[in-house]
Amino acid sequence: MFQSSTTRSNVLEMLCGIYQKLENVEFKYVTLVELKSMLGVVQDLKSARLDVWWLRERLVKVCEALQLSRGYHNLKMALASNCQDIERKKKELNIKGQAKMEKVSLQQKQVSTKREL
Known about the structure:
Mean pLDDT: 88
Distance between the termini: 110 Å
Largest sheet: none
Helix content: over 70%
Shape: rod-shaped
Structural class: mainly alpha
């Protein structure tokens, strides 16, 4: 396939570099840009008729997992924000409810005072 041993060596180093990066880096530190760059390299190697389907498959799965993880994180943040809003509204309603109860109680006292007179 590649006539030059230097070219073969470089291609092998690229493959090993991608594989090692996937093995050694914690998932939370992998970026989508890095993964797409790796996919680009793998696509180039595939175009050169190298059998790299296994690495492409793994990169695609990691990309999907990263996107799902980010989506989960965004949903979790939205949930926390919504829970805070709900608690704030409950407190507001409770305060308004207490004020209304106090107003009703005061009105009842006024009515009973007027009846006594």
